[in-house]
Design brief:
The chain is α+β, with helices and mostly antiparallel strands. The chain has one domain. 40% of the residues lie in helices and 14% in strands. It has two helices and two strands, in the order E-E-H-H. It has a two-stranded antiparallel sheet with strand order 1-2. Strand 1 and strand 2 form a beta hairpin. The longest helix is centred in the middle third of the chain and has 16 residues. It is flat, with a radius of gyration of 15 Å. It starts with 9 loop residues before the first strand and ends in a 16-residue tail after the last helix. The model has no long low-confidence stretch (mean pLDDT 86).
Amino acid sequence: MTTVSIDANITVKWPQGHSSYSPGSPEELAIIGIDLLVKGLGTEAAQQFIAQIFEKYEINHLGAPHTGKA
């Protein structure tokens, strides 16, 4: 599996205020994305959306191989 790092600053705004995020890994980015999906769509619709994404991948998809190149 490949090691991936993320350098991003995300600001989310809604009528009640805003939140800022700085994910450093795909896992942290996924947590933020899922949290925002649930807040925006509700739990069931967010789960259905995510299920549609997973349909694109084989069940045992292992990710990109590590090449050692940056």
